[in-house]
């Protein structure tokens, strides 16, 4: 089922809609967001300079650093009292990235996710269990309201406690699973350990996976454990833009359809900032053209992908993006959570009993990511209690900043490698495992 | 009277203990007694030696996290209940032991190394109860 008529507009109709929304958005941020006005004035631009979609490339980029510089509400285009929801995601260092929604934004968001759920085969009859963390993270709430609008019955089971998740699945007859691909695999593993066969004892027909890259290998593995007929689609989004619902895969499995009437995608060369032609690989840049609270202009997602504009066999005409093949920055995805090495560095530097050097090791144990941070002890001690305290302080600080549990490995001074050029402090062993 | 003990932090890694002993050997440090306590990831090696200052300096120069700690070496009769009696005194005087390990035993006497929570008070208590403490010269 195709949820909205905007998903099947002709290219000319879509471009016309995009242009009028872009012009409105640019005029609004120019008027309401001093930060954007200043950036545009620096380039000698006014909203009147946007005559066509091609003029989009004249506009300045927005980066995570801009959000950090204007923390928390500096890029918002509405007064705070018009907001009805605030979420946050990890910043590169220090303060998180804050996003806010007006009532209209929540409707837009819900609509975007409903479309993506339909693309992935969700129906009103589904019992949808949402195994994303409910909290400041946008993932769970996005899928929750989108599927609810569609008419599915929501089981907001959140993350953790896999045995209980499986009990609900079995007892409620859950048919649709929302999770990260690695958690979907982990659940199947736990089920087998409990003597539950996911293929015959559970009733999952559809899996909407996101918040983490779905590789072909993972999709195959998911079919192997959940059944070959389960419909598995990935979806894409990020809280800065809205949350999940920016794009999603249809059952043709030929890329993720971008909700183009809300988001204009561009692909740029991440070094030069030049816009690349359709089909070429580069960094995805998104402009929000229907958002009220936080309408980001040319937001650099740092995700590397390609765009295709040919209409899809599913009937949709919206532009499709490939599953991102990497990042143009050093962000890591660990258990579906965005982690920037800078955040870890900041914590390490803040613990005075530790030296400034560190190494981040990410491994996969079974289907679960494991984060280990090696640090050097900078305090002489004869007490296990003190060593334990240093470990706990570091682990707790990391937990606050990352929202993830990490293992701390204390080492002697001068154990970790020193770098003269660009430091290589990250060992991501998951790719090889 | 307190004695200087060398405490060294070592990761649980193959050959790491050997490296510490190499450093001490090169420094001409003779080990009189030692204790190695460990967790899953790391351990603390505690050493009574003839040259604690030299040993510690050599270890620091070799990049080990080490320090000198004041401990007591107590002389106790080599008979059932002797250690129990000392611990009773320590408890009654509201002192506590952070850790202890054996040092030597021979003939009618044994000695143990104890790290006390309160050094000054421990010194008084040991004197008051006539618990004999030793130093290096008594050991070599």
Summarize the structure.
By secondary structure, chain A is of the alpha/beta class. Chain A contains ten helices and 21 strands. In chain A, helix 7 runs parallel beside helix 8 (216-226).
Which short descriptors sum up this protein?
heterodimer; A: alpha/beta; GMP Synthetase, Chain A, domain 3; 2 domains; four-stranded antiparallel β-sheet; B: alpha+beta; VC0802-like
Tell me the layout of helices and strands.
The complex is a heterodimer of chains A (433) and B (140).
Chain A: H1 11-32, H2 34-42, H3 64-69, E1 83-89, E2 97-102, H4 103-119, E3 127-130, H5 138-150, E4 153-155, H6 162-172, E5 176-179, H7 181-193, E6 206-210, H8 216-226, E7 231-238, E8 243-249, E9 256-258, E10 263-268, E11 282-288, E12 299-305, E13 307-308, E14 320-321, E15 326-327, E16 332-334, E17 337-339, H9 341-350, E18 354-365, E19 368-377, H10 384-402, E20 407-411, E21 426-428
Parallel strand pairs in A: 3-4, 3-5, 5-6, 6-7, 18-21, 19-20
Antiparallel strand pairs in A: 1-2, 7-8, 8-9, 9-14, 10-11, 11-12, 12-15, 13-14, 16-17, 18-19
Helix pairs in contact in A: 1-2, 4-5, 6-7, 7-8, 9-10
Chain B: E1 2-11, H1 16-26, E2 31-38, E3 42-49, H2 52-61, E4 66-77, H3 82-92, E5 97-106, E6 109-116, H4 119-128, E7 133-134, H5 136-139
Antiparallel strand pairs in B: 1-3, 1-4, 2-3, 4-6, 4-7, 5-6
Task: Give a verbal description of the structure.
The complex is a heterodimer of chains A (433) and B (140). Chain A is an alpha/beta fold. Chain A folds into two domains: 84-329, ANL, N-terminal domain (Rossmann fold), CATH 3.40.50.12780; 337-432, 2-Layer Sandwich (GMP Synthetase, Chain A, domain 3), CATH 3.30.300. Chain A has helices at 11-32, 34-42, 64-69, 103-119, 138-150, 162-172, 181-193, 216-226, 341-350, 384-402; strands at 83-89, 97-102, 127-130, 153-155, 176-179, 206-210, 231-238, 243-249, 256-258, 263-268, 282-288, 299-305, 307-308, 320-321, 326-327, 332-334, 337-339, 354-365, 368-377, 407-411, 426-428. In chain A, β8 (243-249) and β9 form a beta hairpin. The longest helix of chain A has 22 residues, at 11-32. The two termini of chain A are 38 Å apart. Chain B is α+β, with helices and mostly antiparallel strands and 140 residues long. Chain B is 33% helix and 41% strand. In chain B, strands 1, 2, 3, 4, 5, 6 and 7 form a seven-stranded antiparallel β-sheet that branches. In chain B, a hairpin with a 2-residue loop joins β5 and β6 (109-116). The radius of gyration of chain B is 16 Å and the shape is globular. The A-B interface holds A 377, 379-384, 387, 409-415 and B 5, 7, 9-11, 37, 39, 41-42, 44, 46, 63-67, 69, 98, 115.
């Amino acid at each position: 089922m195709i949820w909205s008529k905007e998903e099947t507009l002709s290219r000319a109709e879509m471009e016309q809609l995009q242009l009028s929304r872009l012009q409105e958005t640019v005029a609004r941020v120019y008027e309401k967001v001093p930060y954007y006005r200043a950036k545009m004035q620096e380039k000698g631009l006014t909203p009147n300079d946007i005559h066509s979609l091609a003029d989009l490339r004249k506009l300045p980029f927005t980066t995570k650093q801009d959000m950090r510089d204007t923390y928390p509400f500096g890029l918002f285009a509405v007064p705070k009292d018009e907001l009805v929801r605030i979420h946050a995601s990890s910043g590169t260092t220090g303060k998180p990235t804050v996003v806010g929604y007006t009532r209209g934004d929540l409707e837009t968001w819900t609509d975007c996710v409903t479309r993506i759920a339909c693309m992935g085969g969700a129906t009103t009859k589904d019992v949808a269990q949402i195994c994303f963390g409910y909290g400041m993270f946008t993932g769970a709430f996005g899928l929750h309201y989108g599927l609810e609008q569609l008419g599915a019955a929501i089981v907001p089971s959140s993350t953790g406690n896999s045995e209980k998740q499986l009990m609900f699945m079995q007892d409620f007859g859950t048919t649709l699973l929302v999770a990260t691909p690695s958690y979907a695999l982990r659940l199947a593993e736990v089920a087998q350990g409990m003597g539950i066969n996911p293929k015959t004892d559970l009733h999952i027909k559809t899996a909407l996976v996101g918040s983490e890259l779905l590789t072909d290998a993972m999709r195959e593995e998911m079919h192997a454990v959940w059944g070959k007929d389960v419909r598995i689609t990935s979806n894409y989004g990020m809280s800065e833009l809205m949350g999940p619902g920016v794009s999603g895969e249809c059952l043709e499995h030929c890329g993720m359809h971008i909700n183009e009437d809300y988001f204009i995608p561009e692909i740029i060369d991440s070094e030069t900032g030049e816009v690349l032609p359709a089909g070429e690989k580069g960094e995805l840049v998104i402009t929000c053209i229907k958002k009220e609270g936080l309408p980001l202009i040319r937001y650099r997602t740092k995700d590397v992908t390609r765009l295709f504009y040919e209409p899809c066999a599913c009937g949709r005409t919206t532009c499709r993006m490939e599953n991102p093949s990497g990042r143009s920055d050093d962000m890591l995805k660990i258990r579906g959570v965005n982690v920037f090495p800078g955040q870890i560095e900041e914590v390490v530097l803040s613990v005075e009993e530790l030296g400034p050097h560190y190494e981040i090791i990410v491994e996969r144990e079974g289907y679960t990511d494991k984060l280990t941070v090696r640090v050097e002890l900078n305090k002489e001690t004869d007490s296990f209690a003190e060593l334990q305290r240093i470990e706990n302080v570091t682990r707790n600080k990391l937990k606050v900043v990352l929202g993830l549990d990490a293992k701390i490995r204390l080492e002697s001074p001068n154990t970790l490698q020193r770098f003269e050029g660009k430091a290589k402090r990250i060992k991501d062993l998951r790719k090889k495992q | 009277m307190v004695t200087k003990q060398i405490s060294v932090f070592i990761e649980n890694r193959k050959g790491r203990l050997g490296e510490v002993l190499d450093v001490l050997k090169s420094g001409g440090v003779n080990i009189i007694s030692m204790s190695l306590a460990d967790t899953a990831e790391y351990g603390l090696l505690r050493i009574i030696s003839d040259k604690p200052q030299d040993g510690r300096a050599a270890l620091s120069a070799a990049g080990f996290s080490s320090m000198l700690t004041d401990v007591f070496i107590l002389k106790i009769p080599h008979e059932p209940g002797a250690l129990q009696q000392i611990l009773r005194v320590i408890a009654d005087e509201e002192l506590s032991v952070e850790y202890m390990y054996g040092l030597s035993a021979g003939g009618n006497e044994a000695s143990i190394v104890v790290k006390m929570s309160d050094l000054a008070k421990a010194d008084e208590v040991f004197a008051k109860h006539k618990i004999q403490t030793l130093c290096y010269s008594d050991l070599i």
